[in-house]
């Protein structure tokens, strides 16, 4: 196991990326444990951080850590390997704190424990998935192919670069179509596995997606197919995803409209 780690992570220069991912996951899990205990009002646990009447969200600390880790990563020379890893750890901790409250940034409102707050978990899952693929050596759109055959003729290199540029343009177009069809995960993972983009671009769009609104007339055959697929396949997957999210991060309020007027549930009420 140690030999595998050394060959696949250390020798390939991915140790800072591994440190980032490990720090990100550990910080996210500890943060969610912390906020769930605060929400449960456990006596012996910490309380929310307040500055007077202002609740200090943990994304504020996350921004500071990302700034320190990011600037440190650029400022530290490459031959200080341990310090580069440390900078990656700090940046990963900050990124986890920020993305854990991604929904607050997106909605500019304290929606942490509401239905909208699940956007934070989606952002965290996407970040972990993308970083994990990079750590495994998967490159978006087969990026490493441009540098292959370094000793080949100049004409061969020109053809290679032109072929890659064409495939990149096609894949980017398919990715845009897939995302417009409302298939976020397929579009993002398709950046690393282009075959998924072909499937996502060909299959019917999700109801309510921009593609569906622009191209599917209500009551049309494609619109009915989209509704059928959503009810038969998508909804069970969404229920499973919500179960996983709530198992990891705690239950979100299903009916935020029932809250007292002018008040939202947030990290300040954990």
TrEMBL record:
The keyword Secreted does not apply. Keywords: Membrane, Transmembrane, Transmembrane helix. The keyword Secreted does not apply. The chain crosses the membrane at residues 15-35, 56-76, 82-107, 119-138, 158-180, 187-205. This is Integral membrane protein. It comes from Actinomadura macrotermitis.
């Amino acid at each position: 196991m140690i030999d595998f780690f050394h060959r696949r992570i250390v020798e390939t220069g991915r140790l800072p990326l591994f440190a980032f991912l490990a720090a990100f996951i550990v910080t996210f899990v500890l943060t969610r444990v912390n906020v769930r205990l605060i929400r449960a009002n456990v006596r012996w646990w910490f309380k929310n951080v307040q500055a007077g009447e202002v609740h200090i969200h943990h994304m504020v600390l996350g921004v500071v850590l990302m700034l320190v880790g990011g600037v440190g990563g650029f400022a530290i020379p490459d031959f200080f390997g341990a310090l580069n890893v440390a900078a990656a750890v700090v940046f990963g901790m900050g990124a986890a704190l920020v993305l854990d409250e991604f929904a607050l940034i997106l909605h500019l409102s304290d929606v942490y424990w509401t239905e909208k707050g699940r956007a934070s978990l989606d952002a965290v899952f996407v970040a972990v998935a993308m970083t994990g693929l990079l750590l495994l050596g998967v490159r978006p759109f087969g990026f490493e192919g441009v540098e292959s055959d370094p000793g080949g003729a100049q004409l061969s290199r020109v053809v290679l670069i032109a072929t890659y540029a064409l495939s990149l343009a096609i894949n980017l177009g398919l990715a845009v179509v897939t995302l417009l069809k409302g298939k976020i995960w397929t579009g993002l993972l398709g950046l690393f596995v282009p075959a998924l983009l072909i499937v996502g671009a060909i299959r019917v769009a999700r109801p309510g997606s921009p593609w569906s609104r622009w191209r599917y007339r209500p009551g049309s055959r494609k619109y009915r197919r989209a509704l059928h697929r959503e009810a038969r396949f998508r909804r069970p997957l969404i229920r499973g995803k919500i179960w996983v999210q709530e198992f990891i991060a705690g239950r979100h309020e299903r009916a935020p409209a029932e809250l007292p007027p002018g008040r939202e549930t947030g990290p300040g009420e954990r």
